[in-house]
Amino acid sequence: MAADNRLTPGDVAPDFSLTSDTGETVSLADYRGRRVVVYFYPAANTPGCTKQACDFTENLATLNDAGIDVVGISPDKPEKLAKFRADQGLTFPLLSDVDKTVMPAWGAWGEKTMYGRTSVGVIRSTFVVDAEGKIEVAQYGVKATGHVGRLLRDLKL
Asked: Do 19 and 78 meet the contact criterion of CB atoms below 8 Å apart?
């Protein structure tokens, strides 16, 4: 269960190298020297994930002005992510963890309960990684709607 692997502030962020929606390899190390929001979502082009991704795009300038980049990670294939990015006009990288190797290391894959049913899947989670690669903020089980606004408030942006 992912709860056993949950990250907390001060932990070293698990490294990753994943294929993006453009076919390029993107690594966490690419963001050293800057803060980065790494968020995990269940599926591209679904209502909640679309709302969350569009909220990040709408607030990207505010985050970038504060020295914070954004990457989204899901189990979707790069081709589906490219369509999602194009359909929604998203302006940050979407990364494919189709083999589900990165999500468990971040505690973003495991048992979850929705409408009284337990299943195994992506736990919608958001992290802020500091410039040195350590977890600054770790939020699990976030709601798609309103989450980005709350994150901005928490970061005092």
From this structure: yes
> Whole-structure pTM over 0.85, yes or no?
yes
CB contact set of 37 (below 8 Å; sequence gap of 6+): 56, 63, 68, 69, 70, 71, 126, 127, 128, 129, 151
Please list the active-site residues. 49
Q: In angstroms, rounded to a whole number, what is the distance separating the alpha carbons of residues 123 and 115?
A: 15
Helix, coil or strand: residue 15? coil
Answer whether 144's CB lies under 8 Å from 52's CB.
yes
**Residue 23, CA distances (Å) to 26, 94, 95 in order:** 9, 10, 9
Residue 132, burial from CB neighbour count under 10 angstroms (0-12, 13-18, 19+)? exposed
Residue 4 and residue 143: Cα distance in Å, rounded? 21
CB neighbour list of residue 19: distance below 8 Å, 6 or more residues apart = 25, 26, 78, 95, 96
Cα four-point dihedral sign 133, 137, 142, 147: negative
Residue-wise pLDDT tens digits, 92-149: 999 999 999 999 999 999 988 777 888 899 999 999 999 999 999 999 999 999 999 9
